[in-house]
């Protein structure tokens, strides 16, 4: 508990906020993106935007696993449980409410009779497979490099135990290509002044993984922990870099992140997964070398092969602007659906589902509470 | 009183059979040997399909609550005690004196009689501790798979004898003060720890408790109380939003003032939950005029179930009815309703 208190000390936070205010130059703004949904959640939960000067804009990035999963992949999971009623599909909680084509969700599929279960970890999936040896258990795997090693471990456990009824529908994606897509997607104009690098992802891939991107696009990256003081310190470090005209990779989260990350976890990922040539991201489009597939050695535990799952192209709500929101190009509050039928309770797009999503964050946050109020009133009307 | 002696059921190894709900002799045996024995009371023992009770003059208050919690036994309580506390608290939140409960059981075929006895005994104990009688009941048995073990619905009646009391969710006014009777999130985390097999250094007990005694002390000292509500499913977040909606007001809560046990806070961190959205079964939120807040706090803290009571915020004028949190760091955010499913079947 002391850990939590120390990194949330209000007096230290105020001190950092003062230091940031003193460092900010009056003639410019600082557009900083926190890539990771964990940071988005922490920023909103602690109300950090209210501690920062107006010149510092925090832009919520695409690092929310359920947000970047394209609708077609979710459609594939829904088709699987529809065509194979014997399947037990298990996945992390947030996936249950993400709208697929036509507003279908795993939650609705479950209500209609499909066996869809929420799990907290891959160990739960393993336990399910052992508890139901007569039924196929499919783990719908999503997420960045943080959730990838546990999935890799699950696959090696399934192989070592010779578990025939377990398989993985793999949708793991990689962080550095997504950062590159955001920084390179705006042509000549620099869309961002700095990036708060992800915490847990970086413990796995290491700080070196961002060096090429930072140099290529001339944008500084500071890897931060998830506690409020971590984030404020990272903002200060970014502003100093920007003022100095530097574009380096720095680590604020030194207590957990090493330059080469976690070699054991990386080796495990290497053993189990192989790069996909291309993968569709919601909002960012098809990105080369940006996602992982299961290696041939593990084909027996690959749900896509075992069930011959046909690829599907989804249909999103045409008014949903999750794509632009994920690129940091549109403030969620400026989406036509924000508060007009799209709320955390009735999400139309993925960014409104998870507490890590940019739209749900904006709904909870402000920073202009009047904005949220107006939306709330619309929702009730 | 029973007119003839009943041959004993095998309460150690026996199981509930369809016949126990069929209206025949077997059902009479079950009612007598399990429920009448454990729950006691003249009205129940009389064997009528109704209970006739004398009610003091005043306004009658009624409520009903179904209980499907899983697991049925959890740290700090079980489905039996919860079924009593849930309905006692719902009636008590009107400020009324809680008088009587009724209980309806839906039992799955094959359910162990020993567990049914334990649940009934727990209900009897909880009711006696709360000073209320269980005066009527019903038992249905459904075929195996027709329900999950046992579901219990209780109904309660109470009476408001003090004409000054006017307590309801639409009576919060700007300037009023928000009080909370103790730590939040204990029940939800206790259930979760048992269900997910999470082990904590300090076991977290459910706060399941009957709040009618605390409420009686509160309304006697501060009859000006405007709103009372127990923040069960959806936690403090849902309850404050409900009241804000009903009363057409906003609220501001100070995070630093909300009591949370260190173990609950740690578990919430670990699981990514907000303690404000986690369920409670023995806490209440009170709203009263500002000049009565200190007096109310003193009364609450003097009661064993309100020892950790605190003033947590205030009611604001806000046509948009937004409930806001001032974070420990001095930032702000909205406290919204819990969306979707955090944890089904917690009560």
If you had to describe this structure to a student in words, what would you say it looks like?
Chain B: Residues 47-159 form the PurM-like N-terminal domain. Chain B: Pfam families: AIRS (PF00586), AIRS_C (PF02769). The complex is a heterodimer of chains A (381) and B (347). Chain A is built from 17 helices and 13 strands. Chain A has helices at 2-6, 10-23, 37-45, 65-68, 71-83, 106-111, 122-131, 148-161, 175-184, 200-205, 211-217, 228-244, 263-272, 303-306, 322-326, 358-365, 369-380; strands at 30-36, 56-63, 88-92, 115-119, 137-143, 166-172, 194-197, 221-223, 249-251, 273-275, 278-281, 285-288, 292-294. The longest helix of chain A has 17 residues, at 228-244. Chain A is globular. The model of chain A is unreliable at 367-381 (pLDDT under 50). Chain B is α+β, with helices and mostly antiparallel strands and 347 residues long. Chain B has 2 domains: 18-160, PurM-like, N-terminal domain (60s Ribosomal Protein L30, Chain: A, 2-Layer Sandwich); 177-334, Phosphoribosyl-aminoimidazole Synthetase, Chain A, domain 2. Chain B has helices spanning 25-39, 42-45, 79-92, 113-130, 186-195, 212-221, 235-247, 262-271, 293-302; strands at 59-67, 73-74, 77-78, 97-108, 133-142, 150-160, 177-180, 227-229, 250-254, 285-288, 310-316, 323-326, 332-334. In chain B, strands 8-10-7-11-9-12-13 form a 7-stranded mixed β-sheet. The longest helix of chain B has 18 residues, at 113-130. Chain B is globular and about 65 Å long. The two termini of chain B are 34 Å apart.
